[in-house]
Amino acid sequence: MKTSKRFFDFGLYKEGLRSVQIVGLVFSALLTIVSVFSTVGKLLSAMDTYEENAVQLTSLLLVNPLILLTFCLATPIMTLVAFNFTTKRPASDFYFSVPKTRNTVYWSFSAAVMTWTVFMILLSSAVPLLVFPFFKKYILFNFSSAFLFILAIMICCTLVMGAVNLAIALTGNFVSNVLVSLLIIFLPRILLITVTQNALESIPVIDYGSTVGFLSPYINLVFGMIYSLFSLFFMNDGLGVSTVSFFYTLGLGLLYLILGNIAFNRRKSEAATYAATTPFLRHVYRIALSSAVLLLGTVTFFSYGDGVPGILVITLLFLSLLTYCVYELVTTKSFRSMVRVLPGYFAVIGVNFVLYIAMLAISSALLSYQPSAEKVDGVYISNYSLTSTSFAREDDAGNKLYWSRRTKDVLITDKEVKKIVTDALKQNIKYYKNDIKDDYMTLDTYFEDELKTKYLVTFRQGFQKRTRVIYLDEEENKKLSERLARIKEYEKIFTDLPKPDDPDNAVSIYSQYKLGASDSEAGTLYSAYLKDLEKLSFSELLDLYNTSSDLNVSIRVKTFYKGRAYQLDLPILSDMGNTVDALIKIQKKDLKKQIKELKKLQKSDNPGISIGFYRFPYGQYSGDQYNYDELLDIILSGDLSATAGNGPFATVLYDVGYEGHASFFTRQLFLPLSDKQVNEVKKTVTKIRRAQSSEAVEY
Amino acid sequence: MISVCNVTKTFSKTAALKNITCTIPEGSIYGMVGSNGAGKSTFLRLITGVYKPDNGVITIDNLSVWENPKAKELFMYVPDDLYFISGASMNRMAKLYASLYPNFSFDRFHSLTATLRLNPDINIGTFSKGMKRQAAIILALSTQPKYIFFDETFDGLDSVVRNVIKRLIYNDVAERKATAIITSHSLRELEDTCDQLALLHKGGIVFERDVSDLKTSLFKVQIALREDYDQSVFEGVDIVHFSKKGSVSNMIIRGDREASVEILQKLSPLILDILPLSLEEVFTYEMSALGYDFSEETEGI
Amino acid sequence: MFAIDPMSQQPVYEQLVDEVERFVLLGILKSGSALPSVRSLSVSLSVNPNTIQKAYSELTSRGVVFSVPGKGCFVSSDAAVLIGKARRVRLKDLKEIAEELFLAGVPKKELIDVISTVYKSEEDAQ
Asked: How confident is the model at residue A239 (pLDDT cuts 50, 70, 90)?
């Protein structure tokens, strides 16, 4: 009983709840109202579009988007309000004279803020969580990922509250509270990423994207979410939110809370209204902020050296100096004080100088790694575009994670492979140091013309693994590919795909357009696909995994590998006989109806229909082109029960809307073409081309 | 009992209080006088655990004050700069105090608000400055503390209210052996209320004395003798201040009145008038005797 | 009940002592009767309770009152006598005044008349 009283007082807690209740209520209401509208709206639209057997997929974030405002706005504002007493002398004196220890004051108020935060998160999220289970028919809502997401948001709020608490404990007025909070939340990671990213990126043999863990912007959930709003790699539920980032962010949040507690205890009440609780800290904040601004220049200078335009350096120096002065002016409201601290600006330059040296040191350390083939135990190797997650787009990311994971299981100890790879590394670095460095180009651009192939290689020596990017010229590449193809284990990575009949795997069709296939049909499609794959050579297979479908249809396989879930998108190419036939078969059941639909659409004013021809070079056509209707009639006049085999076929794309609804989807039909049809198409196309060229001549 | 032992507090290189030592006995009403900046508020903030002394020890009932809720439960502090939760009514503040202080009495609270005719339901922010002070005093007294500290609370308070408050304090002191510390920059405010008085000047306690002792320690004598004389003729009497115009001298004498008068009478004076001094005058003379010159500062005292 | 003048140069506790003795002599405070509690007196007179306490202590040391722990202060049985004895000291002042009057040429009869008138009116009042 005594110990709990030392850290918590119900009276203060209630007072804390009271003091932030306005903010808490406003945000709770806002979030919940939006959540209600979104949930209901989503439900209604799903029910409307249900006819197509389309279960709508949605996530908590989409239905309760304002939940992001909790850690961005609500929690920090509430924390600032709850601890506002530290910025005013009378209030500060009051709370330090009451018969409660500072620990009690600190944790009671923090608990109050957290209570409101949790309340608004749960209240707003309860709406979809309670409504959607009754509408499983229309809405596919992943509950476990929703809970994970809620947990992630709460962890973010903990981090933000911890940082704001710490900032408040270390500063004395509102403006500094806010500035230093931002500093604490963003600055460390920005510095870390800027420095390492630039140090690393300028070294072409380093693949920045492979650096996960501590250096990644996503390990810090708060930073990651905001960072992903700016970059376009937006994290969906499922992909990208890793357990590590949960623990790291939570740990960081708790660390800040505890540091805040210590700082709060040591705080002098007389520090209220001053920018920082000690003069030393005031200098620290100002120098930190200005250094960050100048760092942009330092880092650019590091990457581009003499190539940097002088004007840029001068501008950043000026901006940094401006930040330095403005910070002092805004927080102390004293011009004299600003003038007095001007000489301290040299510290900013000093900090940047040190960081510059650090970057140099890191880069030279990295470049010095050039092992000989004998020293290396083995390598993990794969084509760069296949496995590197650097700047990966969302639809690619799943694949890369999968291949990356699988290649990590096969250690290649083949002497020849090792030799090729280690030699290439040495060579690449030599090029960089001698030929390129002065021009500060990356190896990518340097080799552009020479058609070099990029590989991602992880060298293993004992327990150490080092990942590098290497470029091989045609000759070397050929040698390597041949060698790799002969290593059975390595080949298996790419040929040993998840099985379609395995109940742990979920197969679906992934397409921009509606194909109307059920899960079991997708399974059949996949089996056909695998048969087609058997015909491909190893390098063709690798190329396949690197391309996207020219039909805009892929097979999406969700599988488990060694305890983790992966999603693989396998592109369907138009020359795959079995697969296309399977697609055509899938469509057969509704084909008559759909063709009727099409013919009706054809007569309308703005049909918006596109035609594509495959397996013979007659291109793509859309509605406003010559003889378009003729082509369409030809296509639609075929035998509906035929299959394409290895022969030509056509696809038709058209939009289907619902009466009275703005929403629509695009349907894609696959229609085989008989020889007769092909001839007629040839004739029509010739007509079109003649008309086009005569027009051209006329003009 | 509050014991302050060798306490120093410095703010950015200036010492607000230097080596303060004093003891405030239980059941006393201890007044502290000093001009602005003398260190009165700093003193109170040190005693209440708002500030931490740079060195020295402060104990209340033998408990160290700093970060010690047990000690802090024993007192209530009414600062010069009042704080109320923004938008709060007296009732809300009362609820907060009730949860923080174990002895809070709602009965007392209600009867005090009735006596002083304050509305406990409305926002304290709408009160006048005087009413705010009354509200703070009511809340403080309602916690029935053993020690209560008033920082310049009475300065400028209207006399009717002051009287009411005084009586309340007397009641607590008499009934519960409460102890009060009252600071002021005016001696007049404290004169008839306190039984102990201390003078704080430039961070140090200049002196600390029982009020009735102070009042009787010095007295003024006007004396005229037949023959010519000078000060030396008055040996045997402790003269603090001496001035002579013609044959009439005015002296400030310290010591037992009867004994001193007896000695003077032996000189067969033509005129011998004994006049008591006001507390202010006592202060002034004591100060100059100690070597302080307050010619510019007497306005404050 | 007691008349205290806070503005007077005489210390309050001295005034209070004098007042109590006056009341005893006037017979308003009879032997055995209780003095008001320190608390009630301090509140009604608006005087520091310690001052009241000091006065009561002085009266106790003079033997005019005695205190019963927990119950308060009571007038002693021989209070009037004690006060009277103490007041006798004032005869000295009378002596001095008489000397002064003699020097000023005031006839003895006038002095005695004054004294007789005072004693007669006081006795009548009682």
From this structure: very low
